[in-house]
Amino acid sequence: MSRKFAVISLLILGFLAVAHTAAAEGPQFVYVESGVQSANGNSVLAFERHADGSMTPVPGSPFPTGGTGVQETHLVFGPYEADSSVFADHSRNLLFAVNSGSDTIAVFHIHADGSLTPVAGSPFPSGGTDPVSVAVSGDFLFVANQNGDSPHLTGPVLEGRTTRLPNYTTLRIAPDGSLSPVAGSTVKVARLSDPTQVAAIPGTNILFGVDFLGGLIQSFLFDDDGQLHQNPTFALPDSEFTDPGNGNGPQVILGIINHPRLPLIYIGEPPINRVGVARFDRNGHLRFLRSVPNSGQAVCWFRINRAATRMYTSNQGFADTATVSVYDLSDPERPKEIQIIQLAGQGNSAQLELSPDERTVFVVTQNFSSLIPLNQGKALHVLGIAADGTLTSDNPIQISVPVGAEPQGLATYSPH
User: Is the peptide bond before 396 cis (omega within 30 degrees of 0)?
Assistant: First the structure.
């Protein structure tokens, strides 16, 4: 290594250390959607996490989205199963939140005190029916429109769903934060496939989508105009869904995340409680490598720390079996589960997120079980992260929403 390169490297590392310290010492905020189902009743709940780990609501919270939460009140599979329903764009200080029940995307300016104000014109049409997940790359917002929220769908209906097809589409983010459709960018997928997530791979023009009930991963390349070019869909091997005792299990997948440094993705395989590992090339083509066990029930969602040493999974479970697992990523192609922790109280674990300083894991829980008393089990769980990346105490904050509504989505933010 040349002296010049070594000096530059040290300067970069020093800058990153300072930036990380600043993020750790500055205010940190957490955002969750309330999912309220009344007309224009949806909102974003905002919390500040303080230096001592305590959490308090941000003044003015909840912040109305100008739209409606999921209308279905007894969903087992559907919009609540999505990831990235709320997304914080740190480069623009914007927060995006889906209005699944009114087919729009709300956009907010995030202020230094964590409060939110709507972008002029918000909310904006999602480009389809029942938006559930968003992702940002450059000036584009990608949206998965699931078409899975039966009560608010219009038009001819077949098997409880409109004959309109689910889709993935692109919206352009203007300098003022407003959204507009990218003409010709919409890609339709099979009816009842239930898209649940869209994930843009940083530093590439690759976009992945998860078709939950289809058991498929959609792969796209997007160009400089935001047009989506669809690759052949990717299916896990049949062997991943074979149960020697009970025949073939359902081919469903839920949740993917990319490794921060390597062309790998990790895939939730909830029916068999395993985590799949696949490698992708520069064109977005996937090759399945293997799966590894998860000791929870229904592993569904993932987050990875910046150092790419630990991966955290949310395992949905039943009334009293919602858990979070910690994986060692020392061998990225063979993640090893090193801890599982049961969440306090009742509830079905859903989306999870790391705090900006990576000292906390937040998990949203919902109520999908008849074993949980009505309107209980809805909470924001706050789990501490030890120096070795394992999890410590769980201090849940109960979320009060009307009967039938479920909180969903998580985003964290720290001002620059």
Answer: no
